[in-house]
Amino acid sequence: MDPFKQMADWKKNMDTFFGENFWNEFEGIIKPTIPQINMYQTENEVTCLISIPGLTDLNKVDIYVDYTVLEINGVIDVNHSGGTVLNEEILQGVFERKINLPFPVRSDKIKASYRDGIVFIQLYRLISNTSSKHRVPVKLLAD
C-alpha cells in the first residue's frame, strides 16, 4: 500500500469538499513565501529590501515594475553540498513574487543594487502632469 497515494486521494477529497482554492489560504503558513521582503514608504518613494542569499550571478534574478506591481523571479541556491543535513532553515528554490506597491511608480527612474545577500530597490512615485478629471455637463430637463 502506497501512503502517498492515500495522501493524494485525501487531498482530492478535501478539494472536492472545500473547493479547489481551499489550500491556497494556508500556503503562507505551511510554506513561507520566498524571497522575504521588507518594504518602506516615504511620501514619494518606496524602498524594497529583498533577501536573496548566495546570489553570485545577477542574471539569475529578474525584476519587473509595472505601474503598481513589483515582480521578482529567480532562484535561491545556497550551493552547499557534503555531509548530512542536520538543520535547514534557509529556504531555497525557484521563486516568483508579485508585490502590490502603495502607489504608481515611475518606470524611467528605478535603482537596484545587491549587497550582503540583500537586493535594494528604490522606486519613485509617478506624478502625472495630466489630469484625468473631466467636467460633466448637466442638462436641465423640462417638466
From TrEMBL:
Name of the molecule in the record: SHSP domain-containing protein
Organism: Lentibacillus populi
InterPro entries documented for this protein: A-crystallin/Hsp20_dom (IPR002068), HSP20-like_chaperone (IPR008978)
Pfam families for the chain: HSP20
PROSITE patterns: SHSP
The family this protein is said to belong to: Belongs to the small heat shock protein (HSP20) family.
Domain SHSP: 28-141
Superkingdom of this protein's organism: Bacteria
Gene3D superfamilies, per the entry: 2.60.40.790
